[in-house]
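Hey L., structure's done. Input below.
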Amino acid sequence: EGPAEEGLAEALEIEPSPSETGERSAAWDLRRKQRLRVDVISAEGLRDADWVPGGGVSDPYCVVRHRKGSETKDSFQTHVIQDSLNPVWNHFGYVPDFSPDRDTLEFWIYDKDFGKEHDLLGFAIVPGMKIPHEGLDCSLELVDSGVHQASLKIKITFEDDGQQEVDALIAIALDTWQLAGLTAESLPSTPPPRRPPSTDLCGTHSLDLMKSSLASRHPVTVNSIDKLDRFVAAPSAQRLLFWQAMLSLAILYDAFMIPFTLAFEVAMDTQLLAINMLVAAFWTCDFVVTMFSAYQSYGATEMRFRFIVARYMKSWMLPDIGLIFLDWFFILSWLSDGSSVHGGASVFRTSKLARALRAIRLLRLAKVASLSKLLDQFTHSKASVMIVDMTKSSVVLLVCTHLVVCTWFALGNPENEWSVTWVAQANLLGMGVWAQYATSIHWAVTQYTPASMEVTPTNLNERGFAVAADLLGLIGFSTFISSITTMMTQ
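Output:
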């Protein structure tokens, strides 16, 4: 038996139940007629099961299982927390038909992995006999966690069997009442037709009492901001998914063009200007779309406009405003530079400040993480997971290679005709942009493989960067090959 089975056997050694000892109490009988509400709050001190360099840390989630004798079934599962060893879920669920004298609760924490079996980060057992009639609120030490003092914070309470259905009915009634109120506000203020007297006084009086009771407990206030909630798109809405796909293309365009125009002598012609204006308009529209895009919060979908805007203000709103300003600043700078078509190259390479400002726009690459999480939600089969992971790994490798190519050429591009650089030695100054890019990417690829070429560093800066590129290529390419091999074997 492994350590997990031994810990499970040890945890299941509980005291005799009241049915065996004959000792029964009123509180115990009451508990048998109720069900459990289980709150999985947080965990602390989990081990890092992701050993791949640069791959982050564990992505934990918790599965709550209900053991009835020899039968075990999953009751519910929390959402996945990305890259955290101290996750906070604040997730709850219900466990029906729970017998405290015979049943057991199990909490299993896993690390979500793509392309292979999920890693166990630890588990905890709570026998029903150990749950007091007033409930349980404590931290459990995890068994088979692989680290010391890993714990799980939970809360268990007994609830009436019909409470969840009552809460659901009240929520439906409130939603219907709010919708009716909004509809009434939009209709013209004409008096309704007089209703003939009815003899069903009891039913009318009961309905009025129900409305007044709900209104006293849940007052409905609708302002102009809350009316914007109807325009919020759910995460699974087709128009939002299409927009996310366009967002991925815009990020890839920026990831290619910004380093490319910073390193090479690129002339801003009419076609390139039109594309840049289209991309800038897209990012401007994305600023508005983001405020009407729902998000997941602790397993629930947040569809309220004011909360979405508040979250956006705390994260990407100010950076997005600055980046949009830079987009239009460079476009207007080119338009004001003159009527010459090829004079726009000065916009890209006039000064170090202009280069630094354009490089700041690469901050949008950080949005790839949120797009990756969204894509993971729609991949369920092993084949689709493998294809998505291979695609993401390939894109990351290509983007890193492109950055190395542009940096290598920027280091070798001579500031004057007397400078000794690899570009001057290779006689690339008189060639076109694409010939220079092809030579640079040929050199970058040779850093990942044992191949060689005639281009070599000629000064200290180039040699230092070449050493760094060799180390990056060794680590990155070997990690890429090993991950692909692992996914294929799975």
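The longest helix spans residues 382-412. Confidence is low (pLDDT under 50) at residues 9-24, 26-31, 198-207, 339-350.

-- N.
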